[in-house]
Structures are given as structure tokens and as C-alpha cells.
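Q: Here's a chain of 242 amino acids. Please give me its 3D structure as C-alpha cells.
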Amino acid sequence: MNRYSRTAAVAGAVAVGVLALPGAPAAARDGGLWGAATIAPGREGIVEVAGVQEVAEGATLTLTAPRGTRVTGTPLDASGYRGSVAADGRSATYTVTGGPAGRDRVFPFVVAVPAHAVPGTRLRDCSLRVTDARGVPRAVGRCAVTVGLAGPTLTRPLSGVPLAARPEISGTAHPGAQVTVRDKDDQEACATTTTPDGTWTCTPGPGFPAGANRLQAVATLNGVSATSEQIDISVAQDDEGQ
């Protein structure tokens, strides 16, 4: 099993809810060199590369970052490999320094997506290459980096405060994203579109029944989606809440 350094743990935490770690993609299982990730604008995520055939000491795996992105880390924490990132962030490498690399090894590269990237976009020019100790190409492959969506937030209503049956619900999300709020029974409470300043507000149609409930927001834009954390609410009897 791969061991990632603290750098990778931080990158993964930043991208919770928006990062897809593919494990062993179909192309890799079929013998191809492949990597993929979904990363939100302004965030870092890990592209896991699989499908590296057994290579000898001195061999190098190179990932060239998609256009407009940067590689910021090579967090594989395992003996027999040395990771490095180019000064301009356009590429990064792992070099085999010990015995041969096994077929089941997965190589993580941390990639940063710019804040202006459009969610749902498939970023171009991500490529992979394996060369031997003499620099002779042994394999080439591709990597797919899709711009994801940062998770929306729920800022109102406040948890723990008795509420009216139809409280105003508001929060933040990516501008233009469609936001749907669902209750504890996964029923739609209300829906709206995020404004250009990144805020949204909606009010339930039918009122919530009195008692405990739970809300969660789901944001969707250009075919990608993300969810907020859940908040617990309490609706007062006889619509006497705030």
C-alpha cells in the first residue's frame, strides 16, 4: 500500500468532496499508463498514476501538468523512489533509486488548479511518460484532470435556534451554480441559483413540520456537483420560531 507524506494529506483535506481518486482505472488495468482527478478551482488535488510496468533502477516517470495548472508536490513516501518538481511547476518526476518498480505501484502527483478555472472543464495537455536510465522512452500515457466544484456552505438558519416553519435558508457557492437544499428525508426544501457574488438564498415552499430536522445543500454546475456539511435545525411548534 502506498504511503503519502503530510503534504499529500493536506492536499487531500483541501479537496474533500471535489477530489476523485480513481484507484486503478480501466486503462491501467488493461496495461496502459493513466491518471485522473477532479479538482475544484483554486484548490490542490492528487492525480494518482497507475499502470507503470515493472521498470529498473534509474527509470523515470514524468507527469506534464495540464495547461494552466502547476504540479506542487510528489508525496509518495516509500523507499526506492525519488520525487522532484520542476522549478516552473510544469512537470514532476519519480525516479527509481532502488530495485525495480512493481506493477501495482501508484504514483501521486499534487496538482494545483487556478481559481479562474471553469467547473466542468476537462483540462488539456496532461501527459505521462516513462523513460529508462538512458533516457529512452518506454511508455507514454495520458491523465485526465477535470475542474470540479467547491462545496457550498449553509450559513443560515442557525443550528440550535427554534425556527419558523419556513425559515430563510442561505449560504455560499460558486457563482452561477444551481443550489438545492434537502431535508433529513432527502426531500427538496427549496432551490435557487447562486448570484455573481457567490451567495444564494431560498425559502421552503411547504413548511417544515415541527421538531428536529436536518438540512444539506447540493451545488451543481456544468455537470459537476458538490455537497455542503449538514446542519441540524429545530422547528418550533405553532410557527413561533424566529
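Q: Can you summarize the key feature?
A: The helical segments are 6-14, 26-29.
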